[in-house]
Amino acid sequence: MSPSGGGWWRLALGVIAFAALAAGNLALVGLPLAALLLAAGPRGSREWLAVCVAAVLGATGFPLAGRGLLPAVIDAYVVLVTVAFVGIARLSPAPPPPPFLRMALRAMLWATAGVAGLVWVVWGGLAFRALRVESFHEAVAAMRALIAWQPSAAPFFESIVAFVSGTVPALLALETLAGLALAWELHVRLARRPLGAPLAPFRQFRFGDHWIWGVVGTITVWLVPALAALKTTAVNLSIVLGALYLLRGAAIVVALAAATGVSTLALVAGAVAATVLMIPLLFILPGLWTLGVTDTWMQFRRRLASRPTHTRG
Fold it and tell me: Distance between CA 194 and CA 167 in Å, rounded?
């Protein structure tokens, strides 16, 4: 998910970006990092200091005062996904643990099932409706703050509120993947005997080709009226899959750039320029997503690696 050969500055920028994009919820980085370091067996004062710092960082996401049902459920999910992720990495029967993405997805599934069971036992079936209502109210409050800062967003009030309140699971899933990736890479660098290898370079990022059936499933839900009840689930799944295929397309671009001699700095400058201009971004993002999806059949990087190399005699 992130480069393994870069310096500490890349990880630092990753943590800063995560804190900004995840509304400061560093518990998804700090708590897994502390647990991974403990599971690896801290040796020496430096590693114990890292455990303490990570634990304090993780505790910032768990204020003492109650904030409502939705934050409480998210806090429980963070704890459960941490336990599941570290357990999968530590108790894997094979000497090397499974690939990071597989471990993270398994942990997320176990944590989601655990939270659903916990909500049902503690609060009952009506709690799920209360969670939807609370997420709607939080989206309304956030949108009102946005309109106060940018009044031109007022005409999109209802559509944005409906989208944001209905996609909390997808956003939490993406935050979890990013947080666990940062925690894993930090633990690899800090622990003397980490639980596994560093994350592969970003240009190698890929996942199983069978995931394309998830895209097919979400499109089917949108096209078949009889499946309208599953639209909320389809939207959340499409956001997660869209982000992963977008990353896959970006990884292909990075691999092609490296093969053709284009520097990483040039790619970063181009991405920053596209973000500032916005209009090119509207074409680049769908293009990267399409590239990631078509890689299912085209296998661009495999074709690139199999090209014959010509040497001068």
Answer: 35
